[in-house]
Write a structure and sequence with these properties.
Helices cover 75% and strands 0% of the residues. It is built from 24 helices and no strands. It is globular and about 80 Å long.
Length: 480
């Protein structure tokens, strides 16, 4: 194929709606972990796996396995023929787009062009016009599901996709399921500072109503109800989910999480061990078991002033064992590295804790929220275990600077304020302490309080340009 026609082909490929054009960046995801997740979903979500096979084809391409990518696209085609025999063209546009891209990367340009032609011809037929690019709700939804799986950086885009799909078909069960799942994830990761808000509750109720057999949605609704202190209603959904699909690893894992959070840790562990018989290689389940042993440790420490040291050590070692299974196999799992670090700190193994914290901080797919969480937890480690207040203060400040008005912004702020106010009570309130309190108040938009702190800092250190500049800026902002 000539350079000109190859260039023309690339231009046509970029017009297609498929995984290759949805800006799903390899550096934002752990491909091995995602491949395992999608593999489990193909195995256990048996109704229709068109989207999963399409996504798996893209994962295989990113892992340099284009022949395997083609095999997954063939499976996606088989799913379309089996589940949607009357809508083959409508349901195959993403699959055909992926085919075109894979053949392009294999330098099989004629085959790539043939799939571009299929998409263009089918698009014209479906639109009834000469315009082949049409916005189908199914494609918006498939893009939404792919974005959810690509991680938290992509959740807002996923929300927009499902909103677009629902504009076309507001009562579609799948689109409502996608929207509810996205809202739950968004709320869980980004809206935790707004604890009074329940953005996902009504979408989840609606999705469960439209998808009465979907026990994954039931489990998410149960956890959301538990967040709102409606444990009894939540438990009814958990019981229904585990009765309907007693072997579903997804229903079981969320049931275990429900009971662990409720304080019924032994019941949670029993469920997790049952789930491991279904999916013995699931690192997620080991992580959850580690969290259960950690909960048992905290319960033991709360129950008596002097807990038996042998029991304490056993629970710590069991938690570490299960967390390490996760971190060894899933090297980019941020939460597991942090949980392991905190458990090493509990065991007073500070070198191992430091190593786990550093591994967490070096993961290359961290969001700003993750980085802020790291600063907060590492600051706590420095404060309460290493006993280095100066290091702790540095990390709390660093965390606050990453982004404002987030859950861990407030955690860093409150921890820092508490530490500095304790210093003042101990008679150690120097210019740095008051200057830092001024910085905290300024970042929190508490200008009058910030001015008071900076005035105290300047009184103790009159020549400090940073404090003088901040004070001047704050006074000007109030007078303007």
């Amino acid at each position: 194929m000539s350079a000109v026609s190859k260039s023309s082909l690339k231009s046509s490929l970029e017009q297609l709606e498929c995984h290759f054009t949805w800006t799903l960046l390899e550096e934002d995801v752990d491909l091995d972990e995602l491949e395992e997740t999608v593999g489990y979903q193909i195995k256990f979500f048996t109704e229709s796996n068109i989207q999963n096979y399409n996504l798996m084809s893209y994962i295989c391409h990113l892992k340099k396995s284009n022949e395997e990518a083609l095999q997954n696209l063939q499976k996606a085609e088989e799913e379309v023929q089996k589940n949607h025999p009357d809508e083959i063209a409508r349901r195959s546009l993403v699959t055909w787009g992926n085919y075109a891209w894979v053949y392009y990367h294999l330098e099989r340009y004629e085959e790539a062009q043939s799939y571009i032609n299929k998409v263009e011809n089918s698009g014209k037929e479906l639109s009834g016009t000469a315009q082949w690019k049409i916005e189908l709700p199914e494609i918006w939804a498939e893009q939404g599901w792919a974005l959810i799986k690509w991680g938290k950086k992509y959740f807002e885009r996923a929300k927009s996709c499902f909103e677009n799909a629902l504009k076309k078909e507001p009562d579609n069960p799948e689109f409502n399921a996608g929207y509810a799942t996205t809202m739950y994830r968004l709320e869980d990761y980004f809206y935790r500072q707004c604890e009074h808000e329940t953005l996902s509750l009504e979408p989840l109720k609606r999705a469960v109503e439209l998808n009465p057999k979907d026990t994954f949605l039931m489990a998410l609704l149960a956890l959301k109800l538990q967040d709102l202190n409606q444990d009894d209603e939540g438990e009814r959904y958990i019981e229904e989910a585990t009765q309907k699909t007693p072997c579903s690893p997804y229903a079981l894992r969320y049931a275990a999480k429900f009971y662990r959070r409720k304080g019924e840790v032994d019941k949670a562990m029993e469920i997790l061990k049952r789930a491991l018989t279904v999916t013995p290689d699931s690192t997620f389940l080991h992580h959850q078991l580690g969290l259960c042993y950690r909960s048992k440790l905290f319960q033991l420490k709360m129950s008596t002033r002097y807990p038996p040291q042998e029991q304490v050590e056993e629970l710590i070692q069991l938690a570490i064992y299960h967390f390490k299974i996760m971190t060894d196999r899933k090297t980019k799992n941020f939460s597991a590295h942090l949980d392991l670090a905190k458990m090493y700190a509990e065991a007073k193994k500070y070198e191992e804790a430091e190593e786990a914290f550093q591994k967490a901080s070096q993961i290359n797919i961290l969001s700003n929220g993750d980085k802020q969480q790291f600063c907060y937890l590492y600051g706590n480690f420095q404060c309460f275990h290493v006993k280095s207040e100066s290091e702790a203060i540095g990390y709390y400040i660093k965390g606050m600077k990453i982004q404002k008005d987030s859950y861990f912004f407030y955690k860093c702020r409150d921890a820092l304020k508490k530490m500095l106010q304790q210093r003042i009570r101990r008679g150690l309130g120097d210019a740095t302490v008051f200057g830092t309190l001024g910085f905290i108040s300024s970042l929190s938009s508490e200008k009058h309080e910030a001015i008071e702190y900076y005035e105290k800092a300047v009184a103790l250190n009159p020549d400090n340009e940073e404090y003088l500049s901040a004070l001047c800026g704050l006074r000007l902002s109030l007078s303007s």
